[in-house]
Design goal:
two-stranded antiparallel ribbon; 4 helices; LRR_domain-containing; little secondary structure; Leu-rich_rpt; about 260 residues; Leucine-rich repeat, LRR (right-handed beta-alpha superhelix); elongated
Length: about 260
């Protein structure tokens, strides 16, 4: 490997890129180069700068060049699951962009350029699974945002300007150290501790098991006697409960 250079990844030729263009049902042309082992943005893609959608997800990209500004028809850009640590200022020139997925990269707060707020038509922005410690308050200028993903970062606060975006319907901030979203301890549900409940007749138990079950039942009756108020629970004198074990999943118990 040449000194000072990172991994080159797979080389994408213009022929390969042209064969990767798909026409969608809505008439848009999508350049699909996901999972191709690409480490450097291929220059040959500039020959296809009139496409409306680009999928470069699941590659090894570290940088997006300023030449991205050549893709002025771009409405949909998927860059998730790469190694991108910063966006170029030229990203703000993509005025037709409505969808931008940057999930699962290495973006920091410094890696988000101010020009990102120029994407006035952006409806979906996914910044989840990155290295963000803060979110620029200027993201509150993206008035068309409907969906914003900020999950799995290191955020301790969400700016009010972002929370109050007029069209925002889905805001995912899960798994961030946000005080206002701290979950309270769930109350203990005794039902969740039961996996199986077996009802059998006394005649089907050996003497040892029968004595054990009767002893446990007597202990339960003593506890009931200490509880004030009448009991409405039905009684099954010919049935006993020989054993039960614990489980944390109530739904699984119910299915059984």
């Amino acid at each position: 490997m040449p000194k000072g250079k990172g991994p080159q990844g797979k080389r994408i030729t213009l022929k390969v890129a042209k064969n990767a263009v798909r026409v969608l049902f809505n008439g848009r042309r999508r350049l699909e180069l996901s999972k191709m082992g690409i480490a450097i943005f291929p220059k040959c893609l500039l020959e296809l700068a009139d496409v409306e959608e680009i999928d470069l997800s699941r590659n090894m990209l570290r940088k997006i060049p300023n030449t991205i500004e050549k893709f002025q028809n771009l409405m949909w850009l998927d860059l998730h699951s790469n190694q991108i640590d910063e966006l170029p200022a030229a990203i703000g020139t993509l005025q037709n962009l409505t969808f931008l997925n940057l999930c699962n990269n290495k973006l920091t707060t410094k890696g988000l350029p101010e020009e990102l707020t120029l994407l006035k038509n952006l409806r979906t922005l996914n910044l989840g699974l990155n290295c963000l410690e803060t979110i620029p308050t200027t993201l509150g200028t993206l008035k068309e945002l409907v969906e914003l993903g900020l999950f799995d970062n290191s955020l301790t606060i969400i700016p009010k300007s972002v929370k109050k975006l007029p069209k925002l319907e889905r805001l995912n901030v899960k798994r961030n150290p946000l005080p206002e979203f701290a979950e309270e301890d769930e109350p203990i549900d005794t039902v969740k501790r039961i996996e199986s409940l077996y009802l059998v007749e006394k005649k089907d138990l050996c003497n040892s098991c029968l004595q054990t079950c009767q002893g446990e039942r007597d202990e339960l009756h003593k506890l009931e006697d200490l509880t004030p108020g009448p009991s409405d629970k039905p009684s099954f004198p010919s049935l006993t409960t020989p054993n039960s074990t614990a489980i944390d999943n109530q739904e699984e118990w119910r299915m059984k």
